[in-house]
Design a protein that fits this description.
Elements: E1 2-3, E2 7-8, E3 11-12, H1 16-33, H2 40-50, H3 62-72, E4 76-85, E5 88-97, E6 102-110, H4 118-127, E7 133-139, E8 146-149, E9 152-156, E10 162-165, E11 167-175, E12 178-187, E13 192-196, E14 204-209, E15 217-224, H5 234-254
Parallel strand pairs: 1-4, 7-13
Antiparallel strand pairs: 2-3, 4-5, 5-6, 7-10, 8-9, 8-11, 11-12, 14-15
């Protein structure tokens, strides 16, 4: 992989900051891809030796970058342009396949955005986007709570870290004896995102009051199943059923001989 010299506003950037970025980009591309990477400074020297100064200002053009790749004997070329506004600096990156002469992928890196992973995160998105992930670590004292991410079940507590694409995700933790825990979480690149989940039980809270400590509740709180409502007791359900059955029998007997009527007549259809 050959890294073209970085440019700013369409011209080659020869500043010390640009050279530092070129070196960092080359190191991260090598680490991510496992390929041999030629840094921008070495590429610039080869362009000078070949006396092809036009290749120093490809400005993202795929045909120009293809010629540069052939000069370097590379299978791919990465071009970068530095831009931004005020204190926010952005590096725009393009990956070109030298054999096909076509752009493979492009991305941008906001310098200083730790969650995005900086230059390394940009290198991963450029050459291996499936590896642009982070880890969600969910912990809860409740055992066997089911963990869902974006509507997909990922495990039960205690659960190992879950690899997820970088960015926002919807987390839901549920347990039959507790209220659901729902929250949006932001997963950063190549880092653990811990979420401590406190599940609230459905059961009634029974607090024992001390008789000799001034009426203050003791610190120990026990969760117990609450007594069901009276209309859910077996005797209430049986009574309701018997009343409904009796009412149905009375109505059936009253209408057994037919429905009574006061008069009858024939209604002719309209002319």
């Amino acid at each position: 992989i050959a890294v073209a010299p970085l440019s700013t506003l369409g011209a080659e950037d020869t500043s010390a900051a640009a050279k530092k970025l070129e070196g960092e980009l080359a190191r991260d591309l090598a680490a991510v891809s496992g390929a041999n990477v030629v840094a921008g400074a070495d590429v610039a020297d080869e362009i000078k030796k070949a006396k092809k100064p036009i290749l120093r200002a490809c400005d993202g053009n795929a045909s120009c970058l293809t010629e540069l790749g052939k000069l370097m004997g590379a299978s791919h070329v990465v071009f970068g342009e530095v831009g931004g506004l005020g204190n926010v600096q952005v590096v725009y990156l393009v990956l070109v396949d030298v054999q096909t002469g076509k752009e493979v992928r492009r991305t941008q890196v906001q310098l200083g955005a730790a969650a995005e992973g900086g230059i390394k995160g940009g290198a991963v998105r450029l050459v291996d986007p499936d590896r642009y992930t982070g880890r969600l670590v969910v912990t809860t004292p409740v055992k066997d709570a089911v963990i869902y991410v974006d509507g997909r079940r990922v495990g039960k507590s205690p659960a190992p870290p879950t690899a997820l694409p970088v960015g926002p995700h919807a987390l839901r933790v549920t347990h039959p004896e507790h209220r659901d825990f729902v929250r949006f979480v932001e997963v950063g690149f190549d880092q653990d995102t811990p979420v401590a989940v406190e599940l609230t039980p459905y059961g009634a809270i029974e607090t024992e009051l001390g008789a000799t400590d001034g009426g203050k509740p003791r610190s120990n709180v026990t969760y117990v199943e609450g007594k069901p409502r009276w209309y859910r007791e077996w005797w209430a359900i049986a009574g309701f059923s018997a009343a409904a059955l009796t009412g149905a029998i009375i109505i059936g007997v009253a209408t057994a001989d037919g429905v009574a009527f006061d008069a009858s007549g024939t209604v002719k259809p309209p002319q």
